Amino acid sequence: MLVKEVKLHDIGEGMTEAEILRFFVQVGDEVKVDQPLVEVQTDKMTAELPSPAAGTVKEILAETGDVVEVGETLLTLERVGGEEAREDKEEAFVGSADEPAGNERTKSKTNTMRIPRTKRVLAAPYTRKLARDNNVDIEQLTGTGPAGRVTDEDVMSFVSKKEASSRQVDEPADSDRKFAAAAGVAEEIPFRGRRKAIAKKMAQSVYTIPHVTHFDEADVTDLLAVKASLKGSKPEKNASAAAFFIKALQLALAEFPIFNAKLDEENEVIRLEKGVHIGLATDTEEGLIVPVLRDVERKSILDIHHEMKELTLKAKENRLAASEMTGSTFTISNVGPLGSTGATPIINYPEVALMAFHKTKKMPVVRGENDEIAIRKMMNVSMTFDHRVADGAKAVAFTNRFIEYVENPNLLLVELV
Amino acid sequence: MTTTVKTKKLSLVQAVTDGLRTMLAEHEDVVLLGQDIGKNGGVFRATEGLFEQFGEDRVIDTPLAESGMIGTSIGLAMNGFRPVVEMQFFGFIYPGFNQLVTHATRIRARTLGRYHVPMVIRAPYGAGVRAPEIHSDSMEALFTHVPGLKVVVPSNPYDAKGLLIAAIEDPDPVLFLEPMKVYRAGRAEVPETKYTVEIGKAEKLSEGEDVTVLAWGAMVPTMKKAAKNAEKALGISCDVIDVRTLYPLDKETISESVQKTGRVVIVHEAHETGGVSGEIASLINDTSFLYLRSPIARVTGFDTPVPVFSLENDYLPNEQKIERAIEKVVRF
Prior knowledge:
- The structure holds two protein chains of two kinds.
- By secondary structure, chain A is of the alpha+beta class.
- In chain A, 31% of the residues lie in helices and 25% in strands.
- Chain A is built from eleven helices and 18 strands.
- In chain A, the strands form five sheets. In chain A, strands 9-18-17-16-12-15 form a six-stranded mixed β-sheet.
- The longest helix of chain A has 19 residues, at 152-170.
- By secondary structure, chain B is of the alpha/beta class.
- Chain B contains twelve helices and 14 strands.
- A seven-stranded mixed β-sheet of chain B has the order 3-2-4-5-7-6-12, with helices on both faces. In chain B, strands 9-11-10-13-14 form a five-stranded mixed β-sheet, sandwiched between helices.
- In chain B, helix 3 (66-78) packs parallel to helix 4 (94-104), helix 8 (219-234) packs across helix 12 and helix 9 (251-261) packs across helix 10 (276-288).
- The interface between A and B is small, with 8 and 8 residues.
């Protein structure tokens, strides 16, 4: 079934519009070729427009009295098939074939239906000035005056409503004042850009992944001693504690590849990643950003240290390339320097786990066979994992292995590639 | 320091006489011309006693020929006189229209300023005195359309004398319309000495907030009463303005008032179409469009010749019509 639009075409002398006097047909009427459909009047003549095709009137899109521009659709015909013979005539009728080529104005109007004219509310000049002075778009108001005219009162009541609603935010009513002291809005921050992207990602992660966080602590006394000795002997070879942790993680992940993986729910498969690419949760002025330290398994602790430093700097200066922010397989959050002792981090979706390193502090620790109390430098870790992919026992085992490396830097040495 | 100005109570027509006498006494070049203005003292007695006082060379009886009277005055004016020519009735001016439009108002431009025509045409005008046909015409708009001619209409004795003296002193032709309906409608204190009322200045008669009402000539007292009624009956306060000069219009006074009130009623007894009210509405459109709260209303005579006296009161704007218009623009 073909639907044909019957449009107003130029019926002579460059007319641009015509008034609809009456339709001869109604929706549902069967019409024959050349049967008069509608009577229109231009400033020069009255004319009946014949039907370009046989068919059924599907829709009538103009009304008696409407002034219709050339090219606007007057009605649509639903045609019975096999009318190819009529095609030429029809083309002529819809006004493309008999239009001079390049008549852009008419062509651009084709397919448009009754161009909406500017809405005009009634209002006295003074009222319009009043609206303008008060920044009110008078066309948006509903008039209550005679014949729907917008009155001065309409404008002013709109203004006072607007003021009232903005006051509600600025200065709450007396009864709300106590509450407002705590919850009052001092400033509105647009929820857009980086903030919104972070929010989306977090929500996606937390609503998709059943999070479990495992807490533990690591004795980093020896590791820090190694660092101290490096600092003393070869300062340029000294690396940050985090670089050590990353190496330790990479080694632990090699044994527990399930935490260096991604769950593809759709295809029902858990993909263990080949390389270890560590996402570095980094705090910047605009919010959290996660540059990726790639191929940790191929890098020395010092490489890791330098690269991490550079990535963090780039992140803070907003200079990261897109490729430097994607593809991590495991993410760390080194919040220790900021002072935290515990957290329940959210996984960097779609990874399987994330570890946070907390503040290192001196603690009395019971050690050795004689239960001696020693002062040790202790660091808490929070290890969040996707419980769909792994279970608690495995997470504990993984964390233990990580802690083992951290507590015995010598192990790191022997694992060197 | 106070100066006491000696005044006397005069009617409007007496104030005209007083103004003429003042100027005849002060300026030797002032001469009066007109039919029966001399020995007879004029049809409305506006020149009563002046012939006796100043003689036949200063107060000149002319034949019944307005074209000749105006033409002669133009010649006198161009040769150092200040003629004041009287039309017995404004409706009689049409034979002299040609002299006025083709010569009096063009001499200054035609001679590139070498000559000018300091003449005044006085004409009692308007309906409401039960005069026969043509005697009641109010065709001021024919003259406000003519460039080079000032058109002045006093509504009270004080303005009549002051405006007349200003008109006589004006270096160019002035049409001085005297509302005969209020010629003798009450007396007012008028200074005995010479003074002028500036041409081109309207007068605010009372201050109001809601609507500006404008009129001139014999319509002024009617307008004042209507405004007072509107205030009393409807609580509408009116800015009441006596326009006084129809050309040039007092743009400042009119627009200032309209910008305050946002509503306008213009009253004149002349026919509506092409009346000066249209020009005032246009002035308001130019100066105060954004201040308008309702369409400008006009209360005018009908587009018919002024009817004979049995229908005269129906033709003229009255207090009720004006009050209705005031209410309409305020309640719009």
